[in-house]
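In these records, each integer encodes one residue's backbone shape. Here is one protein:

___
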Amino acid sequence: MFKEIKTIKSRVTMALAAVMLLSAADVHAAPITQPTGLSFGASYRLVFVTSGTTTATSTDIATYNTFVSNAANAVSELAALSTTWSAIGSTATVDARDNTNTNPSSAGVPIYLLDGSSLVAASNTDFWDGTISSAIDLDENGNTFSGSSRVWAGTNANGTKSPSRVLGDVSGQTRRGLKTATNDDWIMFANDLSIGQLSLYAISDVITISEDSPIPEPGMMLIFGAGLIGLVAIRRRRQI
């Protein structure tokens, strides 16, 4: 009897180890939508760089907002937030800081990447002061984006439109940023032909935590379930 129980325990341990390895891969591949350390009532925003690309030829900011919204809502974890997503970009008629409701005239809330810990900016003022705390280099899936480092923006470091280089500019060129940068290059590095295919930055509307409990990390429920099954099996063996 003792040997049988020991064997079952050993098999359960091996199974749990395998599940944990699979779950670790899932955690890496999925976005974390609630930053650690925040509790009930806390508000924040999320930001990412799109894995997909688009041109910068449209003069309508809605075109870019739709593009980033589609990217976000294609990911189940982000779609579940039921929030609005906006492009961090400027056209001739709309400044990025107004399109994203991050104008420094209002305090705003902290802005995070999709890894659950990296703070990009503590407030609206911090977001548009010329530097950010973390490069916006994670895509909508929470993965480090491995494509081109260039991102359409049409925007100055303070969030206003870039003169003669906005999204959809008649000159055929648009200001772009670098997703690897934390100085003002993140939003206004250089100009590129607007017909080129580049990514966009996306930012959520304000999200407020409605329950005083953390969101389970992907795979944790699977681990718990496997452990519970193992314990039940051992108990049943003891009763035989």
About this structure: Confidence is low (pLDDT under 50) at residues 5-9, 12-28, 216-240.
